[in-house]
Structure to design on (345 residues):
């Protein structure tokens, strides 16, 4: 490099360094404009340096000229950036804080509530057996809620202690069973329906109770439906839902709307029957109340009890979700803590 060329390159380097520093340090538009005039102005330092290029030895002139242009671009770009930053400090800060190399955060996806998933699965299993899915009102008359189901109004179930009364003969349903009567009134046999929905009771909110909770009602009515069909349908459901190894048993029970009535238990899926806290050391978990439809219910809805027979059942999908996931406290399912619920997906 020739002597004049080298000294001009040095001067350009210093000018670039000082110019960038002055432009970037400008904290307000006036200071920035002064820096621009000083370095990039028509009579500024860069123009002055460029005016000397003609004195550079011919063989070095091209290189020095290119360098001068590069300095001009760098200063101009820095000036534009600083002007934008001063015009909109927030946006400029955001842009400079954005780091495209950081790993992405996991995307948030919604999912169905575990109780909803249990309901959907149960409905699908029974769909294979010819059951369709229907829904009904949460506010019921005492006729559908009690009378049609063969529950006398002085029965303990009709007591104010259990039932929310909205009026003398209007209640919030405590179970989905009144839909049995509604469906039978609207349809001639054969009837095979599953009715998921909310039920309400004057219960405390504790590890095994919620004042509002889901139930699923099942009803099958036709000529010749017998206890054997009833048992085999329930067994089919238990195996499909809880797994092939799950056993089921029927225990005699009592409900006013079924005769005979039975409680259905499944072998505990947590300990497989050997006894644990989920099954309270019994090896069995009760999953539904059930039975053969009482002829009195057929009479109430206008079905001929001599001609038709049927079975009915009612289960609590929240309890079933608790068994499935080994959840000790029902409140965990209803408190809406996404951090908890996400673990069950
Ligand atoms: N309704 C009952 C309850 O809430 C459950 C039930 C029992 C429903 C037996 C039925 C049944 O259909 O046959 O406890």
């Amino acid at each position: 490099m020739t002597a004049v060329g080298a000294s001009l390159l040095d001067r350009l380097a210093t000018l670039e360094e000082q110019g960038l520093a002055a432009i970037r340090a400008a904290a307000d538009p006036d200071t920035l404009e002064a820096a621009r005039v000083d370095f990039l102005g028509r009579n500024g330092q860069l123009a002055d340096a460029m005016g000397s290029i003609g004195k550079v030895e011919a063989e070095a002139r091209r290189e020095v000229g290119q360098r001068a242009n590069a300095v001009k671009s760098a200063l101009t770009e820095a000036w534009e950036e600083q002007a934008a930053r001063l015009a909109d400090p927030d946006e400029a800060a955001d842009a400079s804080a954005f780091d495209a190399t950081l790993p992405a955060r996991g995307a948030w996806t919604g999912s169905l509530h575990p109780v909803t998933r249990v309901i959907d699965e149960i409905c699908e299993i029974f769909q294979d057996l010819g059951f369709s899915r229907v829904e009904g009102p949460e506010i019921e008359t005492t006729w559908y809620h009690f009378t049609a189901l063969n529950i006398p109004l002085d029965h303990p179930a009709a007591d104010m202690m259990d039932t929310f009364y909205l009026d003398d003969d209007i209640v919030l349903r405590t179970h989905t069973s009144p839909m049995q009567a509604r469906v039978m009134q609207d349809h001639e046999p054969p009837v095979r329906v599953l009715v998921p929905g909310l039920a309400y009771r004057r219960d405390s909110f504790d590890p095994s109770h919620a004042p509002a909770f889901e139930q699923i009602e099942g009803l099958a009515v036709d000529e010749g439906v017998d206890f054997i069909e009833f048992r085999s349908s329930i067994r089919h459901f238990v195996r499909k839902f809880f797994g092939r190894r799950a056993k089921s048993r029927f225990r005699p029970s009592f409900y006013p709307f079924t005769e005979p009535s039975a409680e259905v238990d499944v072998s505990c899926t947590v300990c497989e029957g050997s006894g644990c806290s989920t099954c309270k050391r019994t090896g069995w978990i009760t999953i539904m109340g059930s039975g053969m439809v009482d002829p009195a219910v057929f009479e109430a809805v206008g079905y001929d009890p001599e001609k038709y027979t049927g079975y009915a059942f009612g289960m609590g999908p929240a309890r079933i979700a608790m068994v499935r996931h080994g959840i000790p406290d029902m409140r965990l399912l209803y408190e809406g803590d996404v951090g908890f619920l996400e673990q069950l997906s």
Observations:
- The first helix runs from residue 3 to 25.
- The domain at 114-343 is CATH 3.30.930.10 (BirA Bifunctional Protein; domain 2).
